[in-house]
Amino acid sequence: MRITHETLLKIANDAVARQARASRQLLAAYLCGSLLGEAYLLGGTTDIDLVFIYIEAPDNEREITPLTDEVHLDIAHHGQQEYREPRRLRVHPWLGPALNTCRVLYDPQHFMDFIQASVRGQFDRPDYVFERARRQMEQARSIWLDLRELREEPSPDRVELYLRSLEYSANSIACLSGPPLTERRFLQAFPERAEAVGRAGLYAGLLGLLGAPRLANGNLREWLSAWQAAYRSLPTELATARLHPDRLMYYLRAFQALMESEQPIAALWPLLRTWTLAAKLLPTDSQHRRAWQASLDTLGLSGEGFAERLRALDVYLDMVDETLESWARENGVWEV
């Protein structure tokens, strides 16, 4: 299939129309994510991010519908109660930016007209921007507090929490100048966001916390086959929507494209993030989990190295917190 913006938009509209015919509960639907911009393809692949809003809360929160190896629908199902306080949604770190820029595809009762108007009202006011960033930072610090007492060898659960803390901390900076960063382009986009607030060094700090300076030439390419084997080995009944079998090429081709770019280290984040999520679902004695563990050894994220990274994360979070406070003063959120 030839992938064009127009083709993907038609697929999105057709999917909404089918759901509207199938469910009388459907209240509204909107398009969000990469398809709203020009750079919607990475490695020749993309997903179509749709949100369906229902009168009653649905049982299934998320579903993946494959179209081709290159394209799939990623559909979130929400109940209308999630939108009952629209003005508060403007400071929600994830829903707020999504609603601010989304494209409404179905809204016969004008439900989304009111929601989107409320969210967009003064969306870029400094105190609202700061509140969205602050919430991300609070989540990052909360995770660090939970992790700091770790004494045993870090499990996939612990490593995943560590990465989530990094994600929240980086996104607290990113939210000062735009929407949260997407997973595949996370490291690719962060330098520009850090520079936008005059803290370019935060990018180097993030790479250090990931263990990027310890990588040798070829490590990422060597890990790609092990990552793919782990992904393919996941039992279908255990795989989450995020690790759905039909998302394999979506990740793999993006990793390959990033590794061939001017910034190959950008592949580290999505590869390690999804590999860790897969390791959580694998048996302890699995050879695929052992391969993931070996990558942690290389990155310095195991044993005493992990404890050292937690101490470094504490310092990094302080730097991010100071950046937020400085931004707040400079933009009139706080009095000097």
Can you offer a commentary on this structure?
The chain is built from 13 helices and 5 strands. It is an alpha+beta fold and 336 residues long. Helix 6 runs antiparallel to helix 11. The termini are far apart.
Strand arrangement in the largest pleated sheet: 3-4-2-1-5
The SSE string, one letter per element, is HEEEEHHEHHHHHHHHHH
The SS-based structural class is alpha+beta
What's the oligomerization state? single chain
Distance between the termini: 57 Å
Radius of gyration: 20 Å
Counting structural domains, the number is 2
Strand fraction: 5-15%
> Which stretches of 5+ consecutive residues score pLDDT under 50?
none
Shape: globular
Helix and strand arrangement:
Elements: H1 5-22, E1 26-32, E2 46-54, E3 62-66, E4 71-79, H2 86-89, H3 95-101, E5 103-106, H4 111-120, H5 126-147, H6 156-174, H7 186-196, H8 201-210, H9 219-233, H10 248-259, H11 268-281, H12 287-299, H13 303-330
Helix pairs in contact: 5-6, 5-13, 6-11, 6-13, 8-13, 9-10, 9-11, 9-12
